[in-house]
């Protein structure tokens, strides 16, 4: 069973082909700068990389080029495009309507259109990807896998904001959470690594990339998560502020900034980028600058670590204890020092790293806590594409059985 996984952005298209018989990755790639004359395609198969720069006017053209590469005699991974039995689409926002992945129908697409106000930067390109795939692969079932769905198990005390209820009811302003596919994958994988039933575990998943979020998972179900109505809420991120006093945007607007300027500051000029005095949003650059005595970068890392540890502590309380803490995504998987600094702040919960394992097993799937630690600490590389492919396989298999 060969499944195509698609993740579309405003000017990009990421893809993978997986053989779900053994969950083997057959090929993957990225099309970037869609809409320009210098669009770039990067296609990878069996450790080999093929690159080309061509004009790609839209997502349909991008996907068409991808499909040609997939069956290319030299770079392809399939003999015939008809080998693709289904397409799994990453969709950022499912709103309150979708608590799980679904077969895409006209009604589902209409619901996604209704959620565009909630995710104006993400849902429109996600829809373009769906429409392009439907046109180029007619009759092939499409499945939508939502970043927000896994978090729909949050109780009202976690997802409601203390604003007038009529505003929530009218505009659906509530905490939705994001990175749900990643949080679901790593929590399930951690249970397998620990040889435990996930229904018996209290887990805190720490997804630290350029975007970052933390989730409290009790028995396999999310009870709280750090991102909220938008991906701006929560911990400090690469360029996003995370939690701030809600009066700050109002104050800046009264000082003469436009709403768009404030939005740009909080989403693109804040976080590690802003705290480092615009040096970089990349943790590697910031750590290097800190090691050379840059005080801005020192403060940036201190704030970053403090906010992460504070969220983990709050979620340990919300869960009534914690069995495992999982680090994942770019920074979580690859930064030994960030994991060390965060865990050093969690000793009150009985968290103790094995410092040698933390360094030696960096970026690997591993348990890195000491034998004496009361809480298991793990590195689990995320694999959202595999999670999407699994959901797609399950849904179309049930469809065939029915």
Automatic annotation (TrEMBL):
**Residues noted as binding ATP in the record, renumbered to the chain:** 14, 207-211, 282-284, 330-334
Subunit composition?
Homodimer.
Where is the catalytic site? 147 (proton donor/acceptor)
Residues that hold Mg(2+) according to the record = 7, 384
Which locations, inside or outside the cell, does it occupy?
Cytoplasm
State where substrate binds: 90
Q: What is its EC class?
A: transferase
Record PROSITE patterns: ACETATE_KINASE_1 (PS01075), ACETATE_KINASE_2 (PS01076)
GO MF term list: acetate kinase activity; ATP binding; magnesium ion binding
Q: Which keywords, in A-to-Z order, does the entry hold?
A: ATP-binding, Cytoplasm, Kinase, Magnesium, Metal-binding, Nucleotide-binding, Transferase
Q: Which InterPro entries match?
A: Ac/propionate_kinase (IPR004372), Aliphatic_acid_kin_short-chain (IPR000890), Aliphatic_acid_kinase_CS (IPR023865), ATPase_NBD (IPR043129)
Q: Which PANTHER family match?
A: ACETATE KINASE (PTHR21060), ACETATE KINASE-RELATED (PTHR21060:SF15)
Q: What does this protein do?
A: Catalyzes the formation of acetyl phosphate from acetate and ATP. Can also catalyze the reverse reaction.
The primary gene name is ackA_1
NCBIfam families assigned to the protein according to its UniProt record, in alphabetical order: ackA (TIGR00016)
What's one GO-annotated cellular component?
cytoplasm
Task: Output the superkingdom of the source species.
Answer: Bacteria
Catalysed reaction, written as an equation? acetate + ATP = acetyl phosphate + ADP
- Mind telling me what this protein is named? Acetate kinase
Q: What is its EC number?
A: 2.7.2.1
Which family would the database say this protein is a member of?
Belongs to the acetokinase family.
Q: What transmembrane ranges does the database entry give?
A: none
Cofactor-binding details, from the entry? Mg(2+). Can also accept Mn(2+).
Q: Pfam families attached here?
A: Acetate_kinase
Biological pathway? Metabolic intermediate biosynthesis; acetyl-CoA biosynthesis; acetyl-CoA from acetate: step 1/2
An example GO BP is: acetyl-CoA biosynthetic process
